[in-house]
Amino acid sequence: MTVSRVTETLVRVNYSETDQMGVAYHARYLVWLDIARTEHLRQCGASYRELEAAGLRLVVSEVAIRYRQPARFDDLVRVRCWVREVASRRVTFGYAVEHAEDGRLLATAMVALLALDAAMGLARLPKQVGALLQPVPDPVALGLTSETQRTSRA
Amino acid sequence: MTVSRVTETLVRVNYSETDQMGVAYHARYLVWLDIARTEHLRQCGASYRELEAAGLRLVVSEVAIRYRQPARFDDLVRVRCWVREVASRRVTFGYAVEHAEDGRLLATAMVALLALDAAMGLARLPKQVGALLQPVPDPVALGLTSETQRTSRA
Amino acid sequence: MTVSRVTETLVRVNYSETDQMGVAYHARYLVWLDIARTEHLRQCGASYRELEAAGLRLVVSEVAIRYRQPARFDDLVRVRCWVREVASRRVTFGYAVEHAEDGRLLATAMVALLALDAAMGLARLPKQVGALLQPVPDPVALGLTSETQRTSRA
Amino acid sequence: MTVSRVTETLVRVNYSETDQMGVAYHARYLVWLDIARTEHLRQCGASYRELEAAGLRLVVSEVAIRYRQPARFDDLVRVRCWVREVASRRVTFGYAVEHAEDGRLLATAMVALLALDAAMGLARLPKQVGALLQPVPDPVALGLTSETQRTSRA
Lengths: 154, 154, 154, 154
Prior knowledge:
Oligomer: homotetramer
Structural class of chain A: alpha+beta
Order of helices and strands of chain A: EHHEEEEH
Low-confidence stretches of chain A: 148-154
Largest sheet of chain A: 5 strands, antiparallel
Mean pLDDT of chain A: 93
Radius of gyration of chain A: 16 Å
């Protein structure tokens, strides 16, 4: 089976997400990244609900995000998501947030997650999960400040 | 007048901020950083409410955050905040999020903001505002992935 | 043109919406009601984005909600929405929140909104907007505490 | 020991809570009520964190809220909270949300909670908890639509 390694998830900006500048509040993008990651995992055959039920936790250990253009109320936003790196205890995702209609790039981001067990202790990513997560080169330059190269920590 | 250049703001983790892992959800930290930044500005003599009323907007252009230990429901959290850099159109803040009772470091972060005018066009940071924002060296190493040095972009 | 007077909108419970009881946090339902109301208006031919651009504001003046069963992470939730009453300055919506897969009723609610102008002063609901909003009898008993009959205030 | 039966909790409206109307988004009030309820319980000698650790859950079963005037960014808001009724499985709280500086009434509300056990099954409110929660007559008329009298359900 071939799965698309860069998945796309649509979210529509709702009123609660706007702020008094008339744009989507910056912290909401992290929720959109989370929604896109959950869909990416699902499309890779790894339902996060099932992973948690099986005792795995993926907790966010680092986020970097660059905001380029604002999203507005009722805009349909497309979040492209891919795996950047898989290590024994850590997975890193890349994201491009785009305006769904005109394709403008709204934000780029990376999120690193650590594998924990149900008691929130450090764990190894199960091999069958790691096998489902195929890294791809960034399809878009993330342009994060001073992120000069990918890290190999894990 | 001498003002403390590293301010401290307390937030208590409320129930809405927890997730089903039993910890504060990661996107909430960005709101805490925002609250701390607003208090920092106030203590520096620059009420953000008044800055907006005068036509200035400070919009978040970049965030990087590293999560170190979880915060839990009802925990009192202390956010230390300082200015890292001031440029003609851009201000960068640094943050250390700590458990207020035992001092454990929960997260470190940087947030960059751009000055915009009321029409959301690029603007210069007013001189009198820039003068209130005195950069200090990071009191805590932020340890952000691959942020190898401070940037001088603006 | 005949439009369905009870519209249906799907929302999937994301991780940020869960709390440490392992269920969707109660305040999030109000956001789902807002999303469903926006879609209801759109399907009735009254885009809320366009209404705002034309100077109208619909602000929430009252909410009553009864929670019956919890929603959980990754559940697909269906929000049924209808107009209960239209008065000169006020519109009231009814809602049934259901589990999309098994149809269980999760919550029932009413939300009343007042028409304001762009300066946030009381306004009349434009006739052409009121004409698009056709009240229907509640398809589900809302069962709100002591709401013994519909009100006729406005 | 005499404790104040109407407690007061301050919250400051942060930027994330505003929406593009320039006011605090209506769903955020439910979070403020939650924060005030947690403080009320604490002041009554019943830390909710400890109640949960002891196996009790108080889940929101009903909310009714009437919005009277908007709160704005950086406003300091005072939430007055009291117990309206205590029954064997159910506690009802009343609230008045006020502008802290000028005392204007911003909203009134009631929230009913059910006692559940750690497995989320119906439970009785422990007697020692019930004893700490002393109902008082509403100090402010809540003015909720059609709430014609207090209920005696439980």
